[in-house]
Amino acid sequence: MNNKFGVIDVTETGASGDGIQNDTEGIQKAIDECGAKGGTVLLPPGNYSAGTLFMKSNVTLLLSKGATLLGRPDPSLYPHIEHKIPSTLDKAPWRAFIYAFEQENISITGEGTISPGGAHEVFQDNIGDSPDRPFGIHFIRCKNVRVKDISLINSAFWVQRYFECEDLVIRGMSVYAHANYNNDGLDIDGCKRVIISDCKIDSSDDALVLKSHGNRPCEEVLVSNCILSSHASGIKLGTGSVGGYRKVNISNCIIKPSIAESVHHPAKVKNGLIGINLGNVDGGCMEDINISNIMIEGVECPVFIRLGKRNQTAKGIRVSQAGSAKRITLSNISCTDAGPISSSITAYPGSLIEDIVIKDVRIQMSRHSPSDIPRVSPAGNLNQAGFKFMEGKYQNDPEGKTVPENADGYPNARIFDTILPSYGFFVRHVRNIVFDSVAVETSEGDTRVPFVLSDVLNPKFNNALAKKGKDSVNVKE
């Protein structure tokens, strides 16, 4: 067996790479042997078909250029794995293609491809979260994790979830996920010290997501230089937000329409629902969030910031409490060809979002009519999923008095069942907000006002410009 310099070639441990043979045992044997002393498991060029693989500490899984790791379409090869960590998502054991629990110093790298097989009919399901559909990669409470340069294609569920991991680096990854509902591109769930850079993600569901389904917050996260496409949200914090998020910096990213023709999302919005979606609804914190230098194109709603009280819980989850949202800055944001739902920053009665800065932001709304909302046959319980049809008629309500609160609703731009009465920003239940060098623009036929503020304490406008067709107006307090 070739174990020179700590490298084990999987073809030396029984894997064939012909795309037909079940290579699970051969690859796992290489991982186990390498894990005993540390080293690299090499997949040379070929097609390796397997079921669940269990990563071990001190192991690098290296996929050579021309190597593809394929998920076999046999559910019996993917055991349900219970980790017993309190979580609102993990109410039942999940399956996974590549799995690790409490491992250290693990890496997946190389120029090869991981294709978990989510497009196969045995893994198709409705829009509900189903533990029978495997994650592509599922790492839980692991430390010192590196995932670099690989391509990931079409998972049965989320492409990858990193749950309560520490010291995680994801760099140079390419993701294309349009095989099923719930095809999130990258989910960072309750992790600490995370660096994500130079990735390209195109997914049917949310592209880049920070979550906290457990008691730990998602914190100390740096994201930069990514290209993101989604039929849902390009950048998202949520929906699971028990622990919340703090110290998050996202910069230098492009959010643009997906290249996929099929839309595996209940709202059926090809260009995407939301550009930047920040939601805290399960009692956690959302503090010290900085998002800058973002270009957005074509989404239904440019920016959605929400403090709600859905307060999901599960066994072992702390008692739900009022969440917080404060010290959030959006700067140098450009959005074109958006609409018809305006950006919004909202909490609920008795709760306030605090200390918000919107600086150097330009939003151009090209769609403003309710007829611009796709009207599709419901996929599953569409209303419960938070993507209801837009039946409300609040666009002629310049003070926002008739827009429902829906404090416990699913945090999505359609939560108010309306396109909203503003074409710039709808702001409600906020203390200390600054609009500095902000320009909002819509077409001449739009009857809405640029800004609607309701229960907003200490708003400040500095060089805010609103434009409707050819007419421009400076917005003052």
Question: If you had to describe this structure to a student in words, what would you say it looks like?
Answer:
By secondary structure, the protein is mainly β. It has a domain at 184-375 and 391-475. Helices cover 3% and strands 48% of the residues. It has one helix at 24-37, and strands at 7-9, 18-22, 39-43, 46-50, 53-54, 59-63, 67-71, 96-101, 104-110, 113-115, 135-140, 143-148, 151-153, 160-163, 166-171, 174-177, 186-189, 192-197, 200-203, 208-212, 218-224, 227-230, 233-241, 244-255, 274-280, 285-297, 301-307, 324-338, 343-346, 353-365, 422-442, 449-468, 471-475. The protein has a 33-stranded mixed sheet that branches. A hairpin with a 2-residue loop joins strand 32 and strand 33 (471-475). The protein is elongated and about 70 Å long. The model has no long low-confidence stretch (mean pLDDT 93).
Topology (elements, then pairings):
Blueprint: E1 7-9, E2 18-22, H1 24-37, E3 39-43, E4 46-50, E5 53-54, E6 59-63, E7 67-71, E8 96-101, E9 104-110, E10 113-115, E11 135-140, E12 143-148, E13 151-153, E14 160-163, E15 166-171, E16 174-177, E17 186-189, E18 192-197, E19 200-203, E20 208-212, E21 218-224, E22 227-230, E23 233-241, E24 244-255, E25 274-280, E26 285-297, E27 301-307, E28 324-338, E29 343-346, E30 353-365, E31 422-442, E32 449-468, E33 471-475
Parallel strand pairs: 1-3, 2-4, 3-6, 4-7, 5-8, 6-9, 7-10, 8-11, 9-12, 10-13, 11-14, 12-15, 13-16, 14-17, 15-18, 16-19, 17-20, 18-21, 19-22, 20-23, 21-24, 22-24, 23-25, 24-26, 25-27, 26-28, 27-29, 28-30, 29-31, 30-31, 31-32
Antiparallel strand pairs: 32-33
